[in-house]
Here is the input.
Amino acid sequence: MPVYTSTRYNLSRWKMANRVLTPSELIQAHDLLGEIRQRLNELAAGDPATLFAFRRKIAKELVYDERGKTSERVKLKARKFGEQDGICPECGEQLPEKGAHLDRKNAMDGYTPANTNLIHAECHTRRQAARGWS
Ligand SMILES: [Zn+2]
Here is the structure.
């Protein structure tokens, strides 16, 4: 069901630039990171295995905050594959059954049906390199 055929190629040029931190915000971010590292070291009390486990847990949860859970992205990929009739909007070629990437229109808006396209991994890499994001 090629519902989106007429807009397929228009969707490939839809990216917005991500907001970046100002110099003073960057200092705040580094200060926060220092505080987090200090707290992790306190919680680990000198045990490298405990530090590893705490750091890994916090890193994973922060990634979920930005990207959502892996299981949600897997479902979204299947939906987008169907909506796009299995076609990559970047190059117009057939997508593989596995290994395609969700490309966000506006990274801040997350992985939602309206904010993503499913594209080839190579097309994603090429697109990000062209924008200096890789
Ligand atoms: Zn492609």
The longest helix spans residues 23-44. The pocket of zinc ion is lined by residues 88, 90-91, 93, 119-120, 123 (CB under 6 Å). Residues 1-12 have pLDDT under 50 and may be disordered. The domain at 69-134 is CATH 3.40.1800.10 (His-Me finger endonuclease fold).
